[in-house]
Amino acid sequence: MTTSAVSTFQAPKGTYDLLPPDSAVFLAVREAIAAPLRNAGYGYVETPGFENVELFSRGVGESTDIVSKEMYAFETKGGDKLALRPEGTASVLRAALEANLHKLGNLPVKLWYSGSYYRYERPQKGRYRHFSQVGAEAIGAEDPVLDAELIVLADQAYRSLGLRNFRILLNSLGDKECRPVYREALQGFLRGLDLDEETRRRIEINPLRVLDDKRDAVQKQLVGAPMLRDYLCDACKAYHEEVRELLGAQGVAFEDDPKLVRGLDYYTRTTFEFVHDGLGSQSAVGGGGRYDGLSEMIGGPSLPSVGWALGVDRTVLALEAEGVTAAVPATTAVFGVPLGDEARRVLFGTVTELRKAGVAADLAYGGKGLKAAMKAANRSGARFALVAGERDLAEGVVQLKDLDSGEQAPVRLEEIVTTVKERLA
Ligand code: ATP
Ligand code: MG
């Protein structure tokens, strides 16, 4: 076996592998986002990586980019039409409805999830075909406190990671009373603009999405477009005002963004996005909002709900952009260096004891000599090496070496765990 041979295969376009040491940062980000949710009554939910394609075309919306362009849809040998999940909300709601969670007890049903999502996009930095999200959904209650709670929890998650240069954009998309009136007014305005064929089509099927167009030439023409803000019905206005006040009272800063629409059809009322200024054009690190109509769209009862999804990949990039080192749990603290077969057996026992006692410990394998084993110890980042040769074992000791100072002293075998724990404390 040679170690220089490289596999014929590479990760597919738009994907990448998570490998140590960077993978530890991903885990830390997932954990940091999950912690505030667990602490706020959200239970963990896991759904399949693929679903009936209809769930997404109905739930996310035929007219969205996600469904019309980005979905990995396929037919199985058995003739089922499935799609790799492009997002989490539709699946989580489907699962909650299927299990009748909304009938079991108190509403809202609060759930959080973490997993892989798939979109056939043009790959670039921060935009991948396989990416990771942690999300939260509060299903079955209409209460501005819930909208505010979710925004506060995301804010807390980002702050706990040490992120500072993110902003919260907030808007209301109205409801089934006021949005149709606005939609028509907007269509009237957009039809008078100089736009390409595809955008003209979009005016007819999903005009709000035109506001979200990233191109300057389009944005310039949108000056003076009617704003949803001016069309909100009294109930939507009051609801939105309440969310804004609740956030303000918790000291969470946000910016009103009357043009924020987001890509999914199912949003109503509160909609928000977390953007980071160090990420170039892939600036959204997370987003969410209220989706009061989704349950009915997928055949369920009326269940007003709100949720968000935060992108793990972009959050990691945001940490890098800010130069923040995520608090990654310590890796190896103690590294065993056995010299000879007997030492290997003994140190394997010692390392097992240390691990049981909660001390991260590793070992040199493969009968390495002293030099190579010490190199491995240093590379592991361990604080201490436990070096054992025949003479040490005959005396019932191993050498405990401080890898920072280089100091070394014998420690009796039966005292290693206590000694190491003391020295590490
Ligand atoms: P964008 O406008 O950048 O395409 P989006 O509105 O499609 O984002 P959402 O569907 O709201 O994104 O997903 C929530 C979060 O998931 C995003 O804010 C982002 O952090 C992450 N995300 C979405 N698509 C991708 C992707 N292709 N690669 C990496 N992260 C992504
Ligand atoms: Mg997108």
Summarize the structure in short:
This protein is an alpha+beta fold and 425 residues long. The protein contains 16 helices and 16 strands.
Q: Could you please describe the fold and organization of this structure?
A:
- The protein is of the alpha+beta class.
- The chain folds into 2 domains: 22-178 and 232-322, 2-Layer Sandwich (BirA Bifunctional Protein, domain 2); 334-424, Rossmann fold.
- Helix content is 38%, strand content 21%.
- The chain contains 16 helices and 16 strands.
- The chain has helices at residues 22-38, 53-61, 65-68, 89-98, 101-104, 144-160, 179-191, 197-205, 216-221, 234-249, 294-297, 312-322, 341-356, 370-379, 390-394, 416-424; strands spanning 43-44, 50-52, 73-75, 81-84, 109-118, 130-139, 166-172, 255-256, 268-276, 284-290, 305-311, 334-338, 361-363, 384-388, 397-402, 408-412.
- Strands 1-5-6-11-10-9-7-8 form an 8-stranded mixed beta sheet, sandwiched between helices. The protein has a 5-stranded mixed beta sheet with strand order 13-12-14-15-16, with helices on both faces. It has a 3-stranded antiparallel beta sheet with strand order 2-4-3.
- The longest helix is centred in the first third of the chain and has 17 residues, at 22-38.
- The two termini are 43 Å apart.
- The relative contact order is 0.12.
- The mean pLDDT is 94.
- Residues 87, 119, 121, 126-128, 131, 133, 262-263, 282, 284-287, 309, 311, 313-314 line the site of adenosine-5'-triphosphate.
- Adenosine-5'-triphosphate binds at residues 87, 119, 121, 126-128, 131, 133, 262-263, 282, 284-287, 309, 311, 313-314.
